[in-house]
Amino acid sequence: MTSYTPVKLAFNTVEPDGCEKDKAPIIFLHGITASKEYWNEIPKNLANATKRKVYAIDSRNHGDSEWSEVFNFDCNVDDFLHFMDQIGVSKAILIGHSMGGITALKTALRAQSLTRLSDLQIQLKPTPDGRFEYKSNVTSLLETLKNSADLMLEPTGVYDKPTCFIYGELSPFRVKDAEEHIKTLFPNSKLVGIENAMHTVHNDCPQDFTEAVIKFILDQ
């Protein structure tokens, strides 16, 4: 397996009143055109409901994290495991959307110690002259997408801890149709469909999404 030099990841944190610091934190991983701000109020709501510390990170080439010419889902996993080492966390609950979901999936299969909850909005930042530009390393992302065969190898391994795949029933990505394959990699998984939601479940139906995640966490 190829290893990559990790980059420093930017992140936001939410620590609720009465935070139970002995519990594994929750970590949010965004999609390919998003950033750590993408989740809006969901991290705060989950922190308050579960009394866990919550992190929302920027992946490499996104937001305020370091930019690199190297970009694929496997280096995202290396970055993420390095981030966990930096914050002194050995176990976490991962919540990922799209690219972030793949990073969470591959991290769980590699590390075997994480709970993953799965789920394209363009992120902009102001420039000194008052204009706005993409808050992502667009050049690197576009180059990677042109060579999409190199973006991700087929996941391998088995992760047998509780896992929840939350999907929009109106999404063009037919998660339910892949249930048999999902179960070969994640035998202790369940699928939760959100009515009236498309690919961005947490944006389309934030309350339903949040309630599904809270239920999953509290049921464990």
UniProtKB/TrEMBL annotation:
The keyword Isomerase does not apply. It comes from the Eukaryota. It is an enzyme of class 3 (hydrolase). Signal peptide: none annotated. GO terms for molecular function: carboxylic ester hydrolase activity. Pfam families: Abhydrolase_1. InterPro entries: AB_hydrolase_1, AB_hydrolase_fold. Its EC number is 3.1.1.116. SUPFAM superfamilies: alpha/beta-Hydrolases (SSF53474). Keywords: Hydrolase. Residues 25-113 form the AB hydrolase-1 domain. The keyword Hydrolase applies. It catalyses: 1,2-didecanoylglycerol + H2O = decanoylglycerol + decanoate + H(+); a 1,3-diacyl-sn-glycerol + H2O = a 1-acyl-sn-glycerol + a fatty acid + H(+); 1-octadecanoyl-2-(9Z-octadecenoyl)-sn-glycerol + H2O = 2-(9Z-octadecenoyl)-glycerol + octadecanoate + H(+); 1-octadecanoyl-2-(4Z,7Z,10Z,13Z,16Z,19Z-docosahexaenoyl)-sn-glycerol + H2O = 2-(4Z,7Z,10Z,13Z,16Z,19Z-docosahexaenoyl)-glycerol + octadecanoate + H(+). Belongs to the AB hydrolase superfamily. This is sn-1-specific diacylglycerol lipase ABHD11.
